[in-house]
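Checked the freezer inventory, then went back to the computational side. Two predictions to log before the end of the day. The first one is the construct we discussed on Monday; recording sequence and tokens without edits.
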Amino acid sequence: MRLKPSANERCPSPPANADSDWSRDEVEAIVGDYFDMLRCELSGLAFNKTEHNDRLRHVLKARSRGSVEFKHANTSAILTLHGYPYIDGYKPRYNFQALLEQVVLEYLPFTLTSSSPLFWVRSSTPSPLPIPGTSRLSA
């Protein structure tokens, strides 16, 4: 059993951006896409999440399918914390990037017109916060 690599061995480098924070441009792209899908869902229009993910990954060159899905789930968490509905199938994941919350909150005023389905379905009380280290929600 060898414990140390030889002097010439190197660990492979991860792809660019694989473990880095998302840039503002990337976050704005994901938030815009999320709200497009949410508008469709709330209006009863069909849409395909996989096609949205594929199109986004052409713009977000170094992001995987899973990272895009996770960021959509993070967006769901932000919306629930502020009393808004989320896309069915993107269960809220609460460990989100601060920049994502900032962009979602900046985006909301542009989507909250009286003709927007999001305007009419806002919950009167925000969702409870998750209790860190558990899968339970606070009261």
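The second is the one RB wanted added to the comparison set:
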Amino acid sequence: MEALSAVFGILCIAGVAAFLFWLALWDVRQHWLRGQMKTWPAAHGRVLKSEAREYRAGRGGQRIYWLVGITYCFTTAGGGYFGGESEFRIETESEAEDLAHGLKDAEVEVRYRPDDPDTSLVCLPDGRIGSHPFRAGIS
């Protein structure tokens, strides 16, 4: 029984380590994309859907912040039509609700990778740059 308990403990630690490693890679990718996007072409995009939702982080969900998730579309210089999803982290519920409401059907600047327009980021007029969501879709 002790051996089984030890194996379970090791698997739990390995799972947490794997998740933290994935999280670190995701963060590195976000920073890389933001650096690269400065050289990417810009396109006019339109927000199709926006939604504010609560997100709990930290031990026991003690840290609460809000995410505004958007779904958008844009046309490239070559005439291709693409869409994407992006998230913006907001500190308060009222700010998140205001941003989500203000982005409905809004025109936004989209920076896209010329060789892969499916890789794109939204730039808001106030300078905020969206992040790719952890998961696909806005629920």
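For RB: The chain is about 35% helix and 40% strand. The first strand starts at residue 42 and ends at 57. Let me know if you want it refolded.
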